[in-house]
Amino acid sequence: MPSPAVTRIALVGPESCGKSALAAALTERLAEQGARVARIDEYARHYYATRPYRPTMADIEAIAAGQLAAEAVAVGAGAQVLVCDSTVLTCVVWAEVAFGEASRVLHALNRPRDYALTLLPLPDLPWAPDPLRSHPDERDMLFARYRVKLTVAGVASAEIGGLNEARVDAAWQALRDARLA
After folding, report:
1. CA 73 – CA 82 distance, rounded (Å)
2. DSSP characters for 147-165?
3. Are the C-beta atoms of 145 and 151 separated by less than 8 Å?
4. How many H helices and E strands in the chain?
5. Cut 0.90: pTM above it
6. Sign of the CA dihedral 76, 77, 78, 82?
7. How far apart (Å, rounded) are the C-alpha atoms in residues 156 and 176?
8. How far apart are CA 13 and CA 114, in angstroms?
9. Please, which residues have CB within 8 angstroms of residue 155's CB and are 6 or more apart in sequence?
10. Contacts of 38 (CB under 8 A, 6+ apart)
């Protein structure tokens, strides 16, 4: 008997826009409603936990593959809803900013339509320094890149703004509007 369909929710956007906190909050709310949900953390953090942060295109490709592998592991463990704190789209944007273009491998792995809903948090939170963040003054430019990429791919996204619980409530409303919560 085939397993039930898996619903994937993507959070993408510029650095320091609250994706991880939002992913955690949405995962908690979905679990409270009885969903078999898994949060898929941003794989780049795991990847760079054991190596210096000096990215190459091969690193970005490995991170993209790792992000997808983490999704597959969660599905194999029985999750029916995935809240993905980053996707391969992040790797595509990262490669373009760092190297001027994304590789064929990244383009092949990027499947933004695999996600039932894509949340695009606004860069309206204060910048929080982090060893893997390097664009404090370019968040608006990065946000625009994500918006264009999603539009070109034909992916409707919900732009999420606000502070603290208001931000979580806005994301939750987007899930409700998409009939995912």
Report:
1. 11
2. HHHHHHTT--EEEE--SHH
3. no
4. 7, 5
5. yes
6. negative
7. 15
8. 17
9. 112, 113, 115, 118
10. 27, 74, 77, 79, 81, 82, 83
Q: How confident is the model at residue 156 (pLDDT cuts 50, 70, 90)?
A: confident
What are the CA-CA distances from residue 40 to residues 16, 65, 69, 152 (Å)? 17, 13, 10, 25
- HSE-CB for 119 with a 13 A CA cutoff: 33
What pLDDT score does 4 carry?
63
Q: Which tokens sit at 156?
A: 């409707």
CA separation, residue 154 to residues 67, 84, 114, 160 (Å): 22, 19, 12, 19
- pLDDT band with cut points at 50, 70 and 90 for residue 1: very low
Residue 68 CA to residue 40 CA, distance in Å, equals 9
List domains and CATH numbers for the chain. 7-177 (3.40.50.300)
Q: How many CB atoms lie within 10 A of CB 2?
A: 4
Q: Of 152, 46, 50, 149, which Cα lies nearest the Cα of 94? A: 149
Burial class (CB in 10 A: 0-12, 13-18, 19+), 95: buried
pLDDT tens string 40-56: 999 999 999 999 889 99
Tens digit of pLDDT for each residue in 19-45? 999 999 999 999 999 999 999 999 999
